Amino acid sequence: MPIVGFTVFRRFAALALAVGLLAPPALAAPATEQTFTFTTGSADLDDNGRRAVDELATQLLTDVDARVVIEGHADTSGNADKNAQFARKRAERVAERLKQRGVAADRITVESFGSSKPATSNDTAEGRALNRRVVIRVDAPAAPVAVIVPVVVETPVAPAPEPVVVVEAPPVVEADPTPVAEVVVAETPMPVVETEAAWPKWIAVVPAIVGVAAAAGSIAFFIDADGTGQRLAISEDQLARSDLRPEVRTATESRHTALNDAFVVDMGLGIGLGVVAVAGIATAIVLVANGE
Description:
Helices cover 48% and strands 11% of the residues. The protein is α+β, with helices and mostly antiparallel strands. The two termini are 15 Å apart.
């Protein structure tokens, strides 16, 4: 019995240590940047710039959690106040095109730095051309990853049957019918057989650990399912729009399907682990009540 108990304890100690892996770690998502340049005294995008902004809008409609920061810059030629105004107009022109393509305004931040942050020297025409620019930075949040740890349920070993003790009755001595002498029959006391309990109470620790570990896993999956459900709602709002371009709608529908599949898996695992948690805790209560 001590060897079996140690084996069971070792398995569930490893399981309890692995429960910490159920919390979804975050994977860092690097920010991306794009830069567009402008002619002197202009805030209009050329054909290449408009095409690049449209492609960025398609990406943002697919990745609904990403945020955009648009920075407007200018060179040092001309009046400083006008340069600052041109820098803001250039950033706002890019932001307005993103909004026209379906990107929500609360996901866009516009900043203007005028000529205070040149990318290179303003001493040459080539340098000033590079400084008349708009920089778009896309910040994507960390993506949660669910790590699934298998839960091992140890089946309790049925106790060995109790030994059957057969006690023979003492022989009965019949009295002589001749009333010559009195026959005394002595009573033999019944032996008392003491039996041990089927199992010690400490064995209830095993199913208790299983129940707690399963409960923690169930809660983790339900939390993940809640986050997935919120992203599903955002995706459904996007699909409800009638002005989406075909390629944007196709990308959004693909993301919606993937989110729905992830939601179903999280809910199924959360419910399954919840059932295991209830069974483990109930088993622990029974063992405590019937153990020694």
